[in-house]
Amino acid sequence: MLKFIFIRLLQLIPVLIVIITLTFVMVRSIPGGPFSAERKVSEHVLEKLNEHYGLSDPLYVQYFSYLKNVAPKKMDLAALVRFDLKEGLGIDLGPSFRYEGRTVNELIAESFPVSFQLGAMAILLALLIGIPAGTIAALNKNSTFDYLPMSLAMFGICLPSFVLGPLFALIFGLWLDWFPVSGWRAPGGFYWSDNLPYRVLPVLTLSLYYAAGLARLTRGGMLEVLNQDYIRTARAKGLSTWIVTTKHALRAGLIPVISYLGPVIAGVLSGSFIIEMIFQIPGLGRHFINAAANRDYTLVLGTVLFYAALIIILNLIVDIIMVLINPKLKFE
């Protein structure tokens, strides 16, 4: 397993270099610059700003300088837990052009924990809704308990988060006044109970689409497993439906779900960009959208690089779990 992990981590390097190169070329191809939207300044001041941030250098010099700064130089796990990339890996993502006096490292360390909480709670809620719904549908094939959850799942798939978000905000926030429609923390709220209402609508909006997909995958996987000979044998021995389902069927039936978790995590992370803008959540996705709109090159590059590395590592973890659950697979 260690050899498998080591090889996959080595494969991470060329993938990230390609991502950095493509992102660098695309952001520099956009007309204008990071200071184009500022109030009108003299050519001399604009020249000094570009010189200060290294934007007056040739593009290939800026590119290789950026690669040098983002190359890992050390390893400090305690700092990585705090998402401090500079202290943890020696990675310097540069200053932000949009947020004066702030570095991209600081913005990621400050805002990503919010995005991580949002994504983790959304994935957990999607699993808690999708797996039971798919299992119940598979156990009651072609009945009301099959048609109803699968119809709701299809409805959830057809309505993306950028449609559900404003609808939930309008109905549950403005009309019924049950939950706040913006923000992540209550003013002066230091306890979980104070901040919980601010999390309900964004987490629910982000999770329902993926819960629908997980429900359909769980149903398909469970239907295939429930027709296997060893499940019939377990039932013939007199085992209850609960034991047959939880002890024998779920382990194999959830393999498609586990393989889908990698893309789901990627989708939750990228989908949170829109959710953070709709509900005004101070996460990294909101910074990314603002950076793209304001041509903040370093923040765009740093955010893309950070999310790309995170998604690849999470997919690696999913692959390891797949092998541990399914003995037919091997670390190859």
Could you give a short description of this structure?
With 332 residues, the chain is mainly α. Helix content is 74%, strand content 0%.
Features:
74% helix, MetI-like fold, mainly alpha, 332 residues
Cα shape = globular
Strand content: under 5%
Low-confidence segments, given as residue ranges, are none
User: How would you name the CATH homologous superfamily of one domain?
Assistant: MetI-like
- For the residues shown, what is the average pLDDT? 80
- Figure out the total of helices: 14
CATH class value of one domain: Mainly Alpha
CATH topology of one domain: MetI-like fold
Q: What can be said about the biggest beta sheet? A: none
Structural class: mainly alpha
Q: What order do the SSEs take from the amino end to the carboxyl end, as H and E? A: HHHHHHHHHHHHHH
Radius of gyration: 24 Å
Number of strands: 0
Describe this entry's structure for a reader.
The structure is a single chain. By secondary structure, the chain is mainly alpha-helical. Helix 1 packs antiparallel against helix 14 (297-325), helix 6 (104-139) packs across helix 12 (255-278) and helix 9 (192-226) crosses helix 11. It is built from 14 helices and no strands. The model has no long low-confidence stretch (mean pLDDT 80). The protein has a domain at 112-283: MetI-like fold, CATH 1.10.3720.10. Helix content is 74%, strand content 0%. It has helices at 2-29, 43-52, 59-70, 77-81, 85-89, 104-139, 144-158, 161-175, 192-226, 229-236, 241-253, 255-278, 284-293, 297-325. It is globular and about 85 Å long.
